[in-house]
Write a structure and sequence with these properties.
about 725 residues, mainly alpha, D-Maltodextrin-Binding Protein, domain 2, 4-stranded mixed beta sheet, two-stranded antiparallel ribbon, 19 helices, about 75% helix, Phage_infect_YhgE_N, xxxLxxG_rpt, membrane, transmembrane, Chromosome partition protein Smc
């Protein structure tokens, strides 16, 4: 009997009757139901997280942004979460949220603390602290929800951090622009300062030159004041001499007055003594000539005094302008110059009055001299005409009376001249004293102008250094200006965005599973294939006892026992593939390759389970369940297999399910097929061959019956 005939016989046996057929159909549906319902239930759970209730507590009191505008980041976070649809968020209070998480009304609670906005802006005040999001979970509600909520909180944190970082970077770059603008203003100001310092330096140089000129002029003014003091001394001396001469003239005028009186008396007597008239007339002519000469000397002295007084007054008037110019040059205000000139004018007033009196007395002395000459000439003529004088003696007597009266007036005028000369001497003394004080003041002024010139030279040197330093400052500011970033608003916004979110992720997927269910499909399809192969031997006999009893070849008996399971397994995975791809929409990238590989996986798994049942019986059937559990935890179906404990590494490397899962991922997601053909297929083929050999060994061993064969110790 061939293996095919043995397989057909076994299939007929398990389909003989309605219930066996239904049982076979149920067994065929197990992989499809297992993989189909599980993948259907977990196809895309993340798209339905909006049905998961969660509490959202916003206690944020808000704050102000960098521009002083009110801001509440907590409310923005709440709005974004409510609009995102990530969970079914409910805005509640803190107590209600805590109670809801405890009572499983909410799966978790997210709390935005009261100082959230203030903390985010605290770095601007150099008191940095972190804004806090409080996540309240209860693993009694659901463990995975906590993991998902942690991810959501991390995304919220990253989003807020990006926003705050972008705002901070924008303020930082805006500060650079402000620094650039202010530095530019400072550079422009430094340029103006440099220009102004240059002009100040030029002005200081001119000031120094002017101060030198002022000092030179002040020395000249000192020389003039010294000359004025010398002239005032001479004037005082001349005024004293004039006063003495005026006193002498007054005494002579008194004598003239007395003589005129005597002349008048003598003329009276002359009438009686005309005999002596010629001699007396000669004496009179000689005396008159002497008087005339004396008066001429007095008049000449008066003229000299008058000329000297007029010259002194003119010099004093001319000195007003020089003194005023000197005072202005020394920095006196116009008001101070006016006051000084007024004081000088008041000091000169007695001198001017004395000069006026001197000029008046000089004129009278000239008149006196002229009158005296006339008298002398008359006396001379009298002497000449003495013989004829007799007749005119009466007239002479009258003229003598007039002379006496004129002499009286002359005496009064000369007395006034003496008084004026005395006052002139007093004023000249005061002028000399004032001129001495003026010399002292001019010496002080010379010292001040020297100090002014020295300070002006130092100012010239300092302004030169200031101009040089201002130029260096200007050049340095303009050089530094080019090193200060001054981005445009668009560049600043892009830079701030890049600083706030410096790293962008770009997914480069060589292959991709569209949904969570698609990602788990390779694992659960491989697991369902094992389960399908396992349950088949609840109905199928691993080995044909008739064929063994007939002495059939062990290999033929082993293949005859496996072929029905292999065929039914192919039917199982084909149905499962149709449901997964057509009904659930998980379409493989390599449809025919995926289906062919599932056939290979099914045949291998059924061969393994067949070998265990054929070799060990009920114990082998139990070991099939144990191997399923071991492969379930070591195949790396959900997490990468490297995350399993290290003692399970050998299990992953030896068991076939891990290779089946990896190969199905490449076939379904469009990955490289080198590992499928070069690794997975040979490993599964090796397991298949080993399993057939073990089943053949079992068929060989069962050719000899033992007591355990007739009555097994354990029947499942």
């Amino acid at each position: 009997m061939s293996a095919i005939r043995m397989a057909i016989s076994e299939l007929r046996r398990i389909t003989a009757g309605r219930l066996p057929v239904l049982a076979v159909l149920a067994l065929l549906l197990i992989p499809m139901l297992y993989a189909g319902f599980y993948l259907y239930a977990n196809g895309d759970p993340y798209s339905r997280l909006d049905r998961v209730p969660a509490a959202l507590v916003v206690e944020d009191a808000g704050g102000t942004d960098a521009d002083g505008n009110p801001q509440n980041v907590g409310e923005q976070v709440a709005t974004d979460l409510m609009e995102s649809g990530s969970f079914d968020f409910h805005r509640v209070g803190a107590a209600e949220a805590d109670r809801g998480v405890r009572d499983n009304e909410y799966t978790f609670a997210l709390t935005v603390t009261r100082d959230f906005t203030a903390a985010l802006h605290s770095s601007a005040d150099l008191t940095p602290r972190q804004g806090v999001l409080v996540l309240t979970t209860n693993d009694a509600n659901n463990y995975l929800v906590r993991t998902i909520a942690d991810t959501l909180t991390g995304r919220v944190r990253d989003s807020v951090a990006q926003q705050v970082g972008t705002e901070a970077a924008d303020n930082f770059l805006t500060g650079f622009s402000t620094i650039y603008t202010k530095t530019q203003e400072a550079a422009n100001g430094a340029g103006e300062l440099a220009d102004g310092a240059g002009r100040a330096h030029d002005g200081a140089r001119e000031l120094a030159a002017g101060a030198d000129q002022l000092a030179s002029g002040q020395r000249q003014l000192l020389g003039g004041a010294q000359q004025l003091a010398g002239g005032a001394g001479e004037l005082s001396s001349g005024a004293g001499t004039l006063a003495g001469g005026a006193g002498t003239a007054a005494a002579g005028a008194d004598r003239l007055n007395s003589g005129a009186g005597e002349l008048a008396t003598g003329l009276g007597t002359l009438r009686d003594a005309t005999a002596q008239l010629p001699a007396q007339a000669r004496e009179l002519a000689d005396g008159a000539r002497q008087v005339a000469d004396g008066n001429a000397q007095v008049a000449e002295a008066g003229d000299r005094v008058a000329q000297e007084s007029a010259r002194l007054a003119a010099q004093l008037d001319a000195a007003d302008g020089t003194i005023a110019d000197g005072l202005r040059a020394r920095g006196f205000t116009e008001e101070q110059v006016t006051q000084a000139l007024a004081a000088l004018a008041e000091a000169k007033q007695p001198l001017e009055q004395g000069n006026a009196r001197v000029q008046e007395v000089s004129g009278r002395l000239d008149q006196l001299g002229s009158g005296a000459r006339q008298v002398a000439d008359g006396a001379e003529r009298l002497a000449v005409a003495a013989p004829q004088l007799g007749s005119g003696i009466g007239s002479a007597a009258d003229g003598a009376g007039a002379l006496r009266d004129g002499a009286a007036e002359l005496s009064g005028g000369v007395r006034a001249l003496s008084d004026g000369a005395t006052r002139l001497s007093t004023g000249a003394d005061a002028l000399a004293t004032g001129a001495g004080r003026l010399v002292d003041g001019e010496r002080t002024a010379v010292e001040g102008t020297d100090r002014l010139a020295d300070g002006a030279h130092r100012l010239d040197t300092g302004t030169g250094e200031l101009a040089t330093g201002a130029g260096t400052l200007r050049d340095g500011l303009f050089d530094g200006l080019g090193q200060i970033p001054n981005p445009s608003p668009d560049v600043r916004a892009a830079t701030a965005q890049n600083i706030g979110d410096p790293v962008a992720t770009r997914d480069v997927a060589h292959s991709r599973a569209d949904t969570y269910g698609a990602g788990l499909a390779p694992f659960f399809m491989a697991l369902a294939t094992w389960i399908g192969g396992y349950v088949l031997f609840l109905l199928l006999q691993p080995l044909s006892r008739r064929a063994i009893a007939a002495g059939q070849s062990p290999l033929r008996v082993a293949l005859g026992g496996w072929i029905p399971a292999g065929l039914l397994g192919v039917v199982q995975v084909t149905g499962m593939y149709v449901v997964v791809s057509a009904v659930l929409g998980i379409v493989p990238a390599h449809p025919l390759g995926t289906l062919a590989f599932l056939w290979l996986v099914s045949m291998t798994f059924t061969a393994i389970v067949h070998a265990l049942n054929a070799l060990l019986g009920a114990v082998g059937q139990f070991l099939g369940l144990v191997l399923m559990v071991l492969q379930l935890v070591s195949a790396g179906g959900t997490f990468p297999w490297q995350t399993i404990p290290e003692p399970l590494y050998p299990m992953h490397l030896l068991m076939p399910m891990g290779y089946a899962v990896d190969a199905l991922r490449h076939l379904m997601y469009g990955g490289e097929l080198t590992g499928v053909v070069g690794t997975a297929v040979p490993v599964l083929a090796a397991w298949f061959l080993i399993s057939v050999l073990l089943a053949t060994l079992a068929a060989h061993r069962q050719r000899v019956w033992r007591p355990s064969t007739v009555k097994p110790e354990l029947v499942l």
